[in-house]
Amino acid sequence: MAALLPTPAVLQQVWRKASATGNTESVSVGAMERSVGIKPAQRDQTPRIGERERNLLVAALAGEQGGVVAYRQLVALGYSSSAIARAVQAGRLHRVFRGVYAVGHVALTREGRWLSAVLACGPGAFVSRRSAGALLELRPNSRAVVDVTTTHRDRAGQPGIQLHGTTRLAAQEVMTVRGIPVTTVSRTLADLAAVLRTRDLERTFERAEALQVLDVRSVLESVHNRPGAPSVRQILGAWEPVRERSEMEIALRRLVVHSGLPRPEVNAIVGEFEVDLLWRQARLVAEADSLQFHLTRAAMERDRRRDALLAGLGYRVLRFTDRQVRRRPSEVIDALASVIGGVQSR
Hints:
Elements: H1 8-21, H2 30-36, H3 51-64, E1 68-70, H4 71-76, H5 81-89, E2 93-97, E3 100-103, H6 110-121, E4 125-127, H7 129-135, E5 146-150, E6 161-165, E7 174-177, E8 180-183, H8 185-192, H9 198-210, H10 216-223, H11 229-237, H12 243-257, E9 265-270, E10 273-279, E11 284-289, H13 291-294, H14 297-312, E12 316-321, H15 322-327, H16 329-344
Parallel strand pairs: 5-6, 11-12
Antiparallel strand pairs: 1-3, 2-3, 4-5, 7-8, 9-10, 10-11
Helix pairs in contact: 1-3, 7-8, 8-10, 10-11
């Protein structure tokens, strides 16, 4: 987890500030040097920094980590436990999880909270499952609890973190997104297969393919001999590429853009669904329907349920086939215009 420790570049930035201010109050930075791999030959370039510069370093580190720092990082930067306690009492540090603090504020972004949970669980920990699904933009997640998977099964969880121990987490199953260690798309889909209903899991697979991040072989490798394997095999057994649907969505989007209609939001989220085109003020959704993907019984039932739920949210859904978009474009535009114009004229 070296990426979660202050980098030499950040240190050099603070050291330059220390040199410029002339503040060379004698404070050992040996621990700080060791934490980032500073070589002995570089020490003559390293000013000894005072409290002000050390605080700047903490602020710079927090800026790279969504506004948070870990206790062990503060210690590596030369802070004593008593100095950390005083900073908490003074309101400069605010406890997020055990051993993790927000610097100078209490309002965290989602990214800051996710990274806080990883820092709280130590090296070898990664955002996973539902939280990873949200971070990777595969599906929404309203749970306040952060899912974290760790390769150290002896670690205990804490309030606000659901800790999942594993002995199977290969190097190719983890990555870093916006500075946050997280399981890959394939591993996340494999993990979600054990906790999501089949319908929700299928939508998550569809979202992954729409984002062009679905690797079927990799998912099957990650889910092999795991609880979600039957659900994944059921979904992939009837899986069809969405290339035609994507091409049709592009054709519908081009038609609308060149029609003079108000520009819609593209691939917007409404409730639990991603819709092709959305006119939010007009409460109108337009969907591109490919015969290949919408004529099966399951697809038709899914579309009917989707339309009913969107209607319950106050949205009207208009669906257009490839034949309509390519051969009768004026009908498509007239249908959309009648709804948008009717709303605007009220």
